[in-house]
Design a protein that fits this description.
5 helices; alpha/beta; globular; about 15% strand
Length: about 170
């Protein structure tokens, strides 16, 4: 099988890539070294004439920092603005890539994401929740079995290195 992997530098990504390559699969790695996330048009143009993969893992960390909840929120407009700028770039890249692939790729696109957007136990991560909820909306609205293009998410937050390695084998 042919795989594309966005965000290949994390330990979790390395575990998955090592396992895939050891099993004889072809893995193409994408990241800041060869993708300008601020320019999805350029990336899409670069893939228009190549064979699309069977699976894509999107593990890229395109996000800003969250608020410092020990300080009044009203004093943190710069943090908010920086997060929104980063989120805007990342979301636009993910949205345009998925919409390009939706009618061209037969396979699976998997986000490394989190279900934190739906959990009430974490009130001090508003911006992170916005990021993850936007990914959930992409999962819910793009592709589908009838199109042969499945968009899904896998949550790996709060895992030990050992658990990440075991989870990677399941991916």
């Amino acid at each position: 099988m042919k795989y594309w992997f966005f965000g290949a530098s994390s330990d979790y990504a390395k575990y998955i890539i090592d396992d895939l390559e050891a099993a004889g699969h072809e893995v193409t790695k994408f990241g800041r070294h060869n993708v300008d996330y601020a320019d999805p048009v350029k990336f899409i143009e670069s893939i228009q004439n190549i064979e699309l993969p069977d699976r894509i893992f999107f593990n890229a960390n395109i996000q800003g920092i969250d608020f410092d909840y020990s300080r009044p929120l009203i004093e943190q407009k710069e943090t908010y603005d920086a997060f929104i700028d980063s989120w805007r770039i990342g979301f636009w890249f993910k949205l345009t890539l998925l919409k390009y692939l939706e009618n061209k790729m037969k396979g699976t696109f998997i986000f490394s994401t989190s279900t934190i957007a739906y959990e009430k136990d974490f009130p001090n991560c508003i911006l992170y929740r916005i990021l993850r909820s936007s990914e959930q909306q992409l999962i819910f609205t793009i592709g589908g079995k009838e199109k042969g293009f499945i968009v899904a998410g896998a949550c790996i937050s709060d895992m030990t290195q050992d658990k990440k390695q075991k989870y990677a084998k399941l991916s």
